[in-house]
Design brief:
The chain has two domains: about 190 residues, Up-down Bundle (Growth Hormone, Chain: A), CATH 1.20.1250; about 190 residues, MFS general substrate transporter like domains (Growth Hormone, Chain: A, Up-down Bundle), CATH 1.20.1250.20. It is built from 16 helices and two strands.
Length: about 375
């Protein structure tokens, strides 16, 4: 039987974790003006926290196997809430970088422990749907963050974004700490389990194939997403505010895409759902790169955002399918480390290619990597118990 209360508590924590995720990059132009930053200094606001988050993935996996979900989710909320208060009050550049870096630590601590707990708690036949709920609430959090930023920038200033959400985050940490639902570390789920082909090995043949699929898909997705606003503004001559609005609406569509990914994964299987999501992304990008009408561009981008969001639930379910349950924390940490490493490299690789050609080439760049991931996905074999 699915125990939905802890799943809901983990998913709500995901919502809080994602509130500041997109706002920090969106604030770069504002921070450059306020702190009088050079190009190098502005880049460090993104790269230093990103590097720290990447390096935290592996130790977070080991912590997941040694501490309870309650303790780790509490730690992630405390890290995010306290660092948000620091960021809201700082007037020093390096304190700003430090505050955002500590804030980013909350993500790997949360994701690895939360997803590991859900994968152990929920029956396999309902796992995709539960992961869809989890990812949808993460998208809700990201959308709330962007809307809040817009409201505060037009009124009281960006610092109030961090000050406003810190008390609810810290209050939620207290609720998590007092919950008995998240205390145990044991494996509760039973039935419908998928048996890994090399049960005792984390780095099994199947898991290595999945990591290759994840890496290639993320390379294609990140390459296009990083420069999508620039493409819309420079090549399609869409105003920057309008382009940002289109991308922001794509975040809301991500909620629907996440729910679809979870529902579809339960109905037709995680591997098939992931394959269809990649195909949908590729087709959307093909037409997006050939279209000049604004309304068609907006509709195609929203479609692309829908399919891009629908990959997360089946991907997380596949990690759970092909790795040993007793080593799942380590498995998720390796998955997130791989994903984060590619996320950090993709913009620079895409920029180098754009420098040799033009910005339109983000489309064949992204399409090629995503098709490669789809081809390798066909090599993945799942054995059901």
């Amino acid at each position: 039987m699915v125990q939905m209360k802890p799943v809901w508590m983990i998913s709500i924590t995901h919502m809080f974790v994602e509130i500041y995720f997109l706002t920090q990059a969106a604030l770069i132009p504002v921070l450059v003006r306020e702190f009088n930053l050079s190009l190098l200094e502005s880049s460090l606001i993104v790269t230093v926290p990103g590097l720290i988050q990447l390096l935290m993935n592996l130790p977070s996996g080991f912590l997941t196997e040694r501490l309870s979900t309650r303790q780790l989710l509490f730690a992630s909320m405390i890290a995010e809430g306290v660092s948000a208060l620091v960021v809201s009050q700082t007037s020093e550049y390096w304190m700003l970088v430090l505050g955002i870096s500590v804030m980013r630590i909350s993500s790997p601590i949360y994701h690895i422990s939360g997803l590991t707990r859900i994968s152990r708690l929920v029956e396999r036949r309902r796992l995709n749907r539960s992961l869809g709920l989890h990812n949808a609430l993460g998208s809700v959090g990201a959308a709330i963050g962007l809307v809040s930023l817009s409201l505060f920038l037009s009124s009281t200033g960006w610092r109030w974004l961090y000050l406003f959400w810190a008390p609810p985050i810290l209050s939620w940490s207290v609720i998590l700490l007092s919950s008995s639902q998240l205390q145990r570390r044991g494996i509760e789920a039973s039935g419908d389990e998928v048996a890994p082909m090399e049960h005792n090995s984390v780095l099994s043949h199947a898991f290595l194939i999945l990591l290759a699929v994840i890496g290639l898909r993320v390379m294609g997705y990140t390459g296009a997403q990083t420069y999508m606003t620039t493409y819309l503004v420079e090549m399609r001559e869409i105003p920057g505010s309008t382009a940002s609005l289109v991308l922001g609406f794509g975040t809301f569509i991500g909620v629907v895409g996440s729910l679809y990914g979870g529902y579809s994964g339960d109905r037709i299987g995680a591997k098939k759902t992931l394959g269809l999501a990649i195909i949908g992304s590729v087709i959307s990008l093909m037409f997006l790169g050939l279209t000049s009408e604004f309304y068609l561009l907006a509709a195609l981008y929203v479609t692309y955002a829908f399919f891009s969001a629908s990959v997360w639930s089946p991907t997380n379910a596949l990690v759970a399918d092909i790795t040993p349950r007793e080593k799942r924390g380590l498995s998720f940490s390796i998955y997130f480390f791989t994903e984060g490493l590619v996320f950090s490299m993709a913009p620079a690789i895409a920029a180098a290619m754009i420098g040799l050609a033009q910005i339109w080439y983000i489309f064949p760049f992204s399409i090629a990597f995503q098709i490669a991931s789809l081809v390798i996905l066909q090599l993945l074999s799942i054995q059901t118990a």
